[in-house]
Structures are given as C-alpha cells and as structure tokens.
Amino acid sequence: MHGAAGKLSRQSWLHVYRVTGLLTSIAVVLSVVITNVIMETFSAGINVQGLMVSIVTPLVLAGPSILIILVRQEQLRAANQQLQKLANYDFLTDCLNRGAFAAAVAARLKTFGATATGALLMIDADNFKAINDLYGHDVGDQALTIIARSIRAVLREGDLVGRMGGEEFAVFLPGVAEGQATIMAERIRAAVNLARFAPEGEERHLSVSIGGAVFAAPTSFAELFRIADRHLYGAKNAGRNMAAIEHLGDHPVIRLKRSA
Questions:
Q1: Judging by DSSP bridges, how do beta strands 208-215 and 242-247 pair with one another?
Q2: Tell me: the pLDDT tens digits for 113-142?
Q3: 254 pLDDT band (50/70/90 cuts)?
C-alpha cells in the first residue's frame, strides 16, 4: 500500500477515500437491515450484540477490501493515462508526436464549417546540425526543449503544437486569418531568438524558419502540410530566420518577413 501511495495523486487518493467511505457506509446499512430482518424472523428482534456485529463486520471486512480494490483501479487508470501520453507525446519536448498531431488537426478540420479559418505553421530549427556537431546530441536535445518551450509560450489556449521529427515542429492555429497567422509566426520566431541558450557557458543564438498555410474553406491536413512545408523550405533557402505565409486562395507567391 505504501508503494501505491507514491504513484497516486492527491486527487486520486481523495477520490478513493470518498468512494470507500460511501460504499462502506452502504455496506453497514445493508448489514444492519439484513441482520434485523433475520433476527426479527427467527427471534424477538435485533439485540445489542447483533447490532454491533452487523456494524463491525462490514467495517472490518468490506472497508479494507473496497479500499484495496479502488487503489488498484486508480493505479490502473493512472498507468493507462501514462501509456496514452507516451503513445501521443514526444518524450523530449512534451509536444504531440507526428501521428498524434496529424490526427488531432485532421479531427479539428472535420468539425469546421464552410467558413472556418485557421493556419498550419511548419517550424524548423536553423543550423541545428552545427549544434549537434559542435556540442553533441545531448546539447542538441537541450536546444530542442528550449525551442519547444518558446513556441508554447506564445500560443493561445486551443492551439496545437507537435514535433514532426528531428528539429521540425508544427503549430495549428484555429480561427486565425492570414494577418493573425503572420503575427503568430513572428511571435514564435522572436521568442526563439530571445531564448537563452548557452552550451558550455558559450552564448549561442537560436533561430527558426517558418512556413505557413492559411485556409478559409474546407481543406485537409495533407494539403496544409504540403503548402506550409514548401514555404518553410522557401524561407530557409532565402536566408533562414524568416516566416513565409501563404493563403490557400492566393497564388503560390512566398512573402518573406526578414528578421530585424
């Protein structure tokens, strides 16, 4: 039981105690009623000894049994939640993994009406290979966690962020128009630029390139990904540390915003 205590949250323990108390109380009431019926049938009615037995027996037997069962159930529920998180989230950055992100965006798109708006941003760390080559993959992992944290810091409630693999991230922004998507992309880029990254005590500048696809009509994740990814590589080829956003209704002209 002590081992279980370390695995359950305070909220889980409160739930266990509440349910245990409720079920034990019900067991006591049922025991008293049943004992009374039996003694009324076969004797002159319930007596003090019978009453005590009917109360103590469920307290001694039912209470601990219910507690153990509920603790096991809570442990199983917590383990299932952990497994679900491991299946859906990237362990390093705590972002949705590629499969979970794509599925979440696709599910959102299916619920949108004909006039719904939004954007998909593809984000890639600039010169990331150089960091790995100079400092090793552990430091590269630190850089990725800093970038992921910087991205999350500027997102709104309801926005989605995923790690698509390697040094590439994606952000889904529901309900934004092209101007808002551009502002969000610039905020992400600026947040990464301002993040402190000092491997081995040496300050290094982090930056990202961003490609985006904005929609105002029914579309698919695959289409958004294709266009956003194309503009991401356009931004990288144009000099990096830039955001290139396109509306699906526009001609495919990349508009670049160069860093200050």
A1: parallel
A2: 888 999 999 999 999 999 999 999 999 999
A3: very low
- Which is nearest to 167 in space by CA: 207, 198, 201, 199? 207
The domain segmentation of the chain, as residue ranges, is: 2-87, 98-258
Residue that the structure tokens 């090793």 belong to:
136
Query: Which residue, chain included where needed, has tokens 């007596």?
Result: 47
Residues constituting the chain:
260
How many other CB atoms are found less than 10 A from the CB of residue 214? 26
What's the pLDDT tens digit per position in 15-42?
Answer: 777 877 777 777 777 776 766 666 666 6
Of the candidates 69, 103, 107, the one whose C-alpha atom is nearest the C-alpha of residue 84 is: 103
Task: Identify the DSSP state of 197.
Answer: -
CB 175 within 8 A of CB 117: yes
Catalytic residue list: 167
pTM (2 d.p.) = 0.68
Residue 82 to residue 97: CA distance in whole angstroms = 15
What is 98-258's CATH superfamily? Answer: Reverse transcriptase/Diguanylate cyclase domain (3.30.70.270)
